[in-house]
Write a structure and sequence with these properties.
463 residues, alpha/beta, 13% strand
């Protein structure tokens, strides 16, 4: 077992050396009433009653009845790892049980025995592998088993998770809150496109345990000194390759520099690909990391039926409309490569009386949230999305993923088809390969490790 210095550092900190906290509000007390004073009649009308400032109070730990962890003492199965055998905190096991999990996914089985000992890790894993739960379980178990007994300050998170898109941050935070259901840990989400003051109030509700954020909004809070990162014990960088593609790495570097050194924090980095640049960054930001790789052919190929229809560019839209109108198509995500392609396709689909939404990078957060909610509720049958926006879509019951444009990057193909065939369900992926895009198929097949069957669309989609 590797003993990490940051474990003792986080528990023996002196409150007097902690980072400065935000100014505390001053409590104003009412003047004592005179014994001879008369009662003041209640005022009526629209005049607002003045508010009394108060000092924010930390959230009290939850008190829960005992829970028997033997509920997760499920039968042993060859080749599978039980959560019950990982010596996790009982309240965390309770959250895992409530979410319906019993056995670890392959990446969880490989990485958790290492990271639960405090080791750093870099993981190559696509979406749908269970990597989110892997790093969340690591963080939550550490926070519960190593509570801070000394004085704490507001806006000083113990764990920080950075992800490239708002949707992905929101999904990670939802997963974290589910796992933390019985722990009393405080999870805060910081994303752009939403009210700054409302997020600031979340930081002031009590001691912050876990912050999940996009790089830009997190730096905004840090630059205004509304959050302090020098007490971070666990740092997670999720989808590092996507942050690199989106130009976030300079911001991420500033964030990493604001946290304690690698000797005093645990760092977990996940990426769908291990390019030379990603590997260089990972070794700069981690300390003797373990390396775990889950190949794409273990991700979605078994649960997703992949089809490639050879069509001309002019045939794409008519075939797509037929697919969307087919009774077997319940919920469909349609991917394009660019925002203008998505907008043009959305306009055409709506004109054909098909309920649809659109998710691209420039759509305001409030609109994105409501659009995704309508898709989840079934108000929209189809969702047109670009790759950046599509990374954060986690919706149960998606029957079809349709590649209206084949992706320029083969890795994006894996992420796209991972939107369906999740949690044991099956799904269908249909790629419309025209004369301008079919040359991208060999790179996708090489990544998948198998040939894709290319065929003409069935008659039901052409007549």
């Amino acid at each position: 077992m590797l003993t990490r210095l940051f474990k003792s550092f986080g528990k023996e900190r002196n409150a007097n050396t902690s980072a400065p906290t935000a100014k505390q509000n001053t409590v104003v007390t009412d003047k004592p009433k005179s014994e001879t004073s008369k009662a003041v009649p209640k005022q009526t009308g629209n005049k607002a009653k003045p508010r009394r400032p108060r000092t924010p109070r930390p959230k009290k730990p939850m008190t829960l009845p005992p829970w028997d962890s033997s509920a997760l003492d499920v039968p042993l199965e060859e080749g599978k790892t039980r959560f019950y055998d990982l010596n996790l905190d009982t309240t965390l096991l309770h959250g895992i049980f409530d979410l319906g999990f019993q056995y670890c996914s392959p990446i969880q089985a490989q990485i958790l025995p290492e990271t639960l000992q405090g080791k750093d890790a870099i993981g190559k894993a696509q979406t749908g592998t269970g990597k989110t739960a892997a790093f969340l379980i690591t963080i939550i178990d550490d926070l519960l088993k190593n509570p801070i007994k000394e004085q704490r300050y507001l806006a000083e998170p113990r764990a920080l998770i950075i992800a490239p898109t708002r949707e992905l941050v929101t999904q990670i935070a939802e997963d974290a809150k589910g796992l933390c259901k019985h722990t009393g840990l405080h999870v805060v989400t910081l994303i752009g496109g939403t009210d700054y003051e409302r997020q600031l109030k979340q930081l002031d509700l009590g001691y912050v345990d876990i912050v999940v954020a996009t790089p830009g909004r997190l730096l905004d809070f840090h630059n205004r000194k509304h959050i302090h990162l020098d007490q971070v014990e666990s740092l997670v960088l999720d989808e590092a390759d996507r942050m690199l593609d989106m130009g976030f790495i300079p911001q991420v570097r500033r964030i990493v520099r604001a946290t304690p050194n690698t000797d005093y924090r645990q760092t977990l980095l996940f990426s769908a690909t291990f390019t030379a640049e990603i590997l260089e960054m990972s070794y700069q930001w981690t300390y003797e990391p373990v390396k775990v790789e889950i190949e794409p052919d273990n991700v979605a190929s078994d649960s997703v039926e992949q089809k490639v229809y050879m069509v001309s560019n002019e045939e794409k839209l008519p075939v797509l409309l037929k697919i969307l109108q087919h009774p077997e198509t319940k919920l469909a995500i349609i991917f394009t490569n660019r925002r203008d392609q998505a907008q043009k396709l959305y306009d055409r689909i709506v004109k054909n009386n098909i309920s649809a939404g659109i998710l691209t990078g420039e759509i305001p957060q409030k609109k994105r949230t409501s659009t995704l909610e309508k898709f989840k509720n079934g108000e929209y049958k189809a969702m047109i999305a670009t790759d950046v926006a599509g990374r954060g879509i986690h919706v149960e019951g998606i029957s079809h993923v349709i590649n209206y444009n084949l992706p320029d990057n083969p890795d994006d193909y894996i992420h796209r088809i991972g939107r369906t065939g999740r949690a044991g369900a099956t799904g269908i992926s249909i790629s419309l390969a025209c004369e301008f895009e079919s040359f991208q198929l060999p790179a996708i097949e090489e990544l998948l490790g198998k040939k894709l069957r290319c065929e003409l669309p069935p008659e039901e989609f052409t007549t």
